[in-house]
Amino acid sequence: MSILIKDSIIVTQDSNRRVFHGDVYIEDDRIVEMGRINVEADFILKNKIVIPGLINMHTHLPMTLLRGYGDDLPLEEWLTTKIWPVEAKLKAWHIAIGTKLAFMEMIATGTTCCNDMYFFEDVIAREAKNFGMRCYAGFSIIDFDTPEMKKEMLLPECEKFIKKWKNDGLITPVIAPHATYTCSPETLQKVAEIAEKYDCFIHIHCSETRHEVYDVLNKYGLRPLQQIKKYGLLSEKTMLAHCGWITKGEVKEISSAKACVIHNPVSNMKLATGGYTPLPELFEAKACVTLGTDGAASNNKLDMFETMKFAALIHKHHRWDASIVTAQQTLDMATVNAAKFLGINVGSIEEGKKADIVCLDAKQPNLMPRHNIISHLVYAASGFNISDAIINGKIIYHERKFLNIDEEKIYEEVEKAKEELLQS
Ligand SMILES: [Zn+2]
Predict the structure, then answer these.
(1) Most buried of the four, 61, 127, 189, 323, by CB within 10 Å?
(2) pLDDT for residue 424 is more than 70
(3) How far is the centre of ligand 1, averaged over its atoms, from the C-alpha of 217 (Å)?
């Protein structure tokens, strides 16, 4: 497949953060040429704002099925009376349909790569492959039976899962111990062994709530990050979701371990976790900071444009300083920072890079006039300004329509899954 994007504003996110007016030509899975180009192509797009596909670093894809179910409740009550009872009824087909819906929403709002953590992860990986989504698929490890299998089966099944997907071009298997309050020291240690054996990424919730921090401190005498470190899980392969209640010392430890923090401002605010991921201190310590939406039950969208805006605003407001997190730093978190951490050749638009690119229609009322395009992307744009999405060189979403996907059928099945899950 070849794609030519003409007469557009190209936000490269390269090392100079160059923005220019021109064309981009894509052949197979690569960006071949940039500048002024006159060639024939299978697809020609015109008058766009072209940006690297956004990378959503923390999500629970099938939770789209729980969007809007039991909002506005205290966290504990929400989990115990709403979320967990429904999750216990999940079957593979619910997961498949919830994942499809998540990909539709993500791609239609500019996300081309996601880092997931859930049950039935093999079903999720398969759906990602079918959809053409770049996906880091996190096989959840927890000390409870899951809706999919008995707890004793989780570690051996996770190994099988890693072996099955480890050489795939789009899907990367990840081991995902849920958190230090749901995984015993013994479990954490076994996770570390598997991660080392297969050299795979680790995705874990860390210090999301103050309750969690004191729970772990009371039980083990250590804070969650210390517990993660003690059992060999803090490395340059570790992705720490939330970190809303970490200390300045922990910021340094994360930075020197070269681990990655995933900031989920919308979910944190909606669940009222009270903590502020210390972005200014993490930036100062040169730690890797990325962004995630979290699951659709606690966001309730998977729109990374909204997450970018909240990520910048929450810290400006909290620190009484409008300069503390800039639009450029925010766009970096959603693109290059994540790509660099994951070690993949995406996240910027440069010749030779893999083509994970999304386009916004250039002429939209909320994007005019163009004083500063980076500012528009973070503060003015909405996910639904996206018109086209290209993943690994393939157009998946074109002129606001999915190619090769029956949207109506997915909506019907989503409603069917909802009805079945809510039956007692
Ligand atoms: Zn989460």
Answers:
(1) 61
(2) no
(3) 20
